[in-house]
Structures are given as structure tokens and as C-alpha cells.
């Protein structure tokens, strides 16, 4: 008997499959989680980790059940959240799923789309955790500067919906992503450079802001309102006859003024003109479809 050939778990997802009968292994994984997390926290403060852009994770016996990818997404989630808390860019992740040749890799591949979906959900959560941490420390710092009875008026870009990855919230940055993809297709930049670029922007909902103010506890919240403002609202006041290309140029100029230093340090100054030329075109296309707005939040606080 050739062990290499016959040593594998039952494939598929049926009644006798390993995938449907691996809850004991899941229990072991749950028990080991604190040790895994301790190891990850130790790793992320290690000089070798800090000096690397790519982190490679290998499962040496992944089989074809749900346990493998759930451990991988837990590792990715923990590292991403920890990096955001420490104001650091998370690494690019490479995942190696190994097993013996008889393993049912087809079932492993079939489970990848739901793994990617889960990862997509992890990203907004990591951005929210970062915002929560930052806004909490902002309030804490102001509480040390403002005397009892002092007032604060804040404005932030916010969002109306519960879902932080909804189009309304992401559209302004989606135009940049589309323009980046355009210039990647033209050969100005590599596709992989886009994957490793993260924009430090989060638009909270009113409920998220309220929760953090209550949690921090130094201020009474006296007003929390949202209002809409068109992407080109200042330009079109009293004049709605501008064509979409002209409006797009106006929008693209202020997006460039805000984002160019970050984009340029990642993609290089030489590609900025090409990028923003494509950006103008993408914003103009968006105007052909809808009348986009930003949601702004206004908050008034009294120091307790
Ligand atoms: C009990 S399963 C665990 C699967 C999964 N990691 C989990 O926790 O549910 C052990 C896996 O290790 C694999 N395995 C055993 N010896 C191996 C070897 N020398 N190289 C790669 N995989 C191996 C088996 O084929 C099997 O899929």
C-alpha cells in the first residue's frame, strides 16, 4: 500500500465526508485559538515582520473541510486588525494550502469564493476598528483641552446606510480604483500595486459616531445630523448648465489635491497625470449615470 496515495480524508461534502465530520478538529482549533493569537501578536511586533511586505501562511494538511479556511481567515483578520490598531499597513497575504495528492482539492477550490467573500467583510470591519480607535483618542485628547461646559462643533464625511462597503460610501474612491485599473491596463503600473494600496478613509454612520461618543464618555451629545452635498456643489451653485466633463474636472482637481501625496508615494509621481486624466473620464461617466452626493455629519458636544 502506497501511503501517499491512500492517506487522505473522505472527499466531497456528503454525509461520510471529512468536511461534514470535522467538528472534533474544530473543537481542538477553538481550544488552541488563544495560543495562535498570542503567537500572531508576538509575530506582528517582530522586526522581521515589520520589515516584510508579504506574509506567507501555510496549512500543512488542509484537507477539504471548513476548518482550514476558517483558521486562515482568523489569522488574516487578527493581523489586519492589529496592524490597523497600530496605524500600520497590513502586509499582503500569500496562503499555501498543502495536502497529500489524494486530497479532494476540487472541494477546497469550490470553497474559495465564500472565503473571499468573508475576507471582503473583514476589510470594512478593520477600517471601522481603526476609526473607532482614532475617534476615541481624538475625543479623549479634546476632553483634556476643553473645560467643563465648553463646546465643540465637528463635521465629518459620513454615510446614510449601515453597510460601510455600499456604493454610496465608496463611489468617490471607486473612481480612483477604476482609474488605477485603467493605467495598469495601459502598462503604467502593476496590478499588484493596486492590491497593496489602502486608502486611510472611513465614512462612519451617525449610529457609529454616537456609540463612540457615549463609550468615551467625556462629552454630552447635543446634536448629530446628516446632510447631503453634491460632489460639485460649490461649482454649480446658481449654475446648473455645466457639462459633465467640466464637472468631472472640478471634482478630480479637489480629489487630486487631497490624495496625490499618498498615491504618488505608492505609485510614483510620474504616473499621476495619466491617473488623473483617467479619473476625470471615470467621474464624467459616473455623472452620466447619476447625480452623486457626499453625506456629511455635523456633531455638537458639551464637555461634561
Ligand atoms: C485530520 S486532517 C485535518 C484537516 C484540517 N487541517 C482540519 O483541521 O480540519 C489531517 C490532514 O493532514 C493530511 N496529511 C497527513 N500527512 C501529510 C503529509 N505528510 N503532507 C501533507 N498532508 C498530510 C491528511 O491528508 C489530512 O487531510
UniProtKB/TrEMBL annotation:
It comes from the Eukaryota. Pfam families: Methyltransf_7. One of its GO terms (molecular function) is metal ion binding. InterPro entries: MeTrfase_7, MeTrfase_capping, SAM-dependent_MTases_sf. SUPFAM superfamilies: S-adenosyl-L-methionine-dependent methyltransferases (SSF53335). Keywords: Magnesium, Metal-binding. This is Uncharacterized protein. The lineage of its organism: Eukaryota, Viridiplantae, Streptophyta, Embryophyta, Tracheophyta.
Amino acid at each position: 500500500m502506497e501511503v501517499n496515495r491512500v492517506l487522505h480524508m473522505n472527499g466531497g461534502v456528503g454525509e461520510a465526508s471529512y468536511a461534514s465530520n470535522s467538528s472534533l478538529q474544530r473543537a481542538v482549533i477553538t481550544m488552541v485559538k488563544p495560543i495562535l493569537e498570542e503567537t500572531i501578536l508576538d509575530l506582528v511586533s517582530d522586526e522581521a515582520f515589520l520589515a516584510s511586505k508579504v506574509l506567507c501562511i501555510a496549512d500543512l494538511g488542509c484537507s477539504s473541510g471548513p476548518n482550514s479556511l476558517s483558521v486562515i481567515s482568523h489569522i488574516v483578520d487578527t493581523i489586519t486588525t492589529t496592524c490597523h490598531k497600530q496605524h500600520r499597513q497590513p502586509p499582503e497575504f500569500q496562503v499555501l494550502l498543502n495536502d497529500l495528492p489524494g486530497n479532494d482539492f476540487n472541494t477546497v477550490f469550490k470553497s474559495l469564493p465564500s472565503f473571499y467573500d468573508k475576507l471582503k467583510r473583514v476589510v470594512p470591519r478593520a477600517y471601522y476598528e481603526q476609526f473607532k480607535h482614532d475617534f476615541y483618542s481624538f475625543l479623549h485628547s479634546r476632553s483634556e483641552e476643553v473645560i467643563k461646559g465648553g463646546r465643540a462643533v465637528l463635521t465629518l464625511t459620513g454615510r446614510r446606510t449601515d453597510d460601510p462597503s455600499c456604493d454610496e460610501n465608496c463611489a468617490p474612491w471607486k473612481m480612483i480604483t477604476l482609474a488605477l485599473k485603467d493605467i495598469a491596463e495601459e502598462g503604467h503600473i502593476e496590478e499588484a500595486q493596486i492590491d497593496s494600496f489602502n486608502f486611510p478613509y472611513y465614512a462612519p454612520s451617525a449610529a457609529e459616531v454616537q456609540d463612540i461618543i457615549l463609550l468615551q464618555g467625556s462629552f454630552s451629545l447635543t446634536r448629530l445630523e446628516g446632510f447631503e452635498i453634491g460632489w460639485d456643489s460649490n461649482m454649480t451653485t446658481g449654475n446648473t448648465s455645466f457639462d459633465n466633463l467640466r464637472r468631472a474636472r472640478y471634482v478630480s482637481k479637489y480629489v487630486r489635491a487631497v490624495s496625490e501625496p499618498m498615491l504618488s508615494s505608492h505609485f510614483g509621481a510620474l504616473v499621476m497625470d495619466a491617473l488623473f486624466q483617467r479619473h476625470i473620464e471615470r467621474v464624467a461617466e459616473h455623472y452620466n449615470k447619476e447625480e452623486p452626493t457626499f453625506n456629511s455629519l455635523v456633531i455638537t458636544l458639551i464637555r461634561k
